[in-house]
Design goal:
CATH architecture: 3-Layer(aba) Sandwich
Number of helices: 6
InterPro entries: Isochorismatase-like_dom, Isochorismatase-like_hydrls, Isochorismatase-like_sf
Largest sheet: 6 strands, parallel
Mean pLDDT: 93
Order of helices and strands: EHHEEHEHEHEH
Shape: globular
GO molecular function, one term: hydrolase activity
Organism: Luteibacter pinisoli
Protein name: Isochorismatase family protein
Distance between the termini: 20 Å
CATH class: Alpha Beta
Number of domains: 1
Strand order of the largest sheet: 3-2-1-4-5-6
Keywords: Hydrolase
Low-confidence stretches: none
Length: 183
Amino acid sequence: MALTQLDVNAALIVIDLQQGIVNLPVASPAAPVVEKAAAIARAFRETKRPVVLVNVDAGAPGRTDSGVPQVPQDPAFKSFVPELEQVPTDHVVTKKRWGAFQTTDLDRHLRGLNVEQIVILGIATSIGVESTARYASELGYNVVLVTDAMADLNADAHHNSITRIFPRLGETTSTAELLAKIG
């Protein structure tokens, strides 16, 4: 874990910290992830850095071995957890795929703000977080992954993403290290 620097124009991307996702049976408790995400979001807002809140309300079409993804249509499912303290300046992205870039305005929004570095955290590590990080890396963003502010449905998948995939996509860091660089 080594975050070399936090850019002045870095943006925070919070993946799927919504009621329906944080209440799923994740491999490690979701509450610490939400707490850390909320602290980081507050710090980004205080330093006038962009905050992007991402939720999911559909799955990619197509057949899979696990079946066609079903996302509940109850509006409460996609409501952000209150701990994030959403404010009007937060950019909201509702995704219909695993990653936050595909079929959304996220890249255009970030480019319009001259963002070159993105900080990603959320649930699930091996799904929404990893997919967003992969696409961001391919788009040329400097990617930072806050590994202690993530959880997954599967402990092995979480470990694989953090130890094998993320070091190839960007820099990994902890909440404490990131907060120490904000200022």
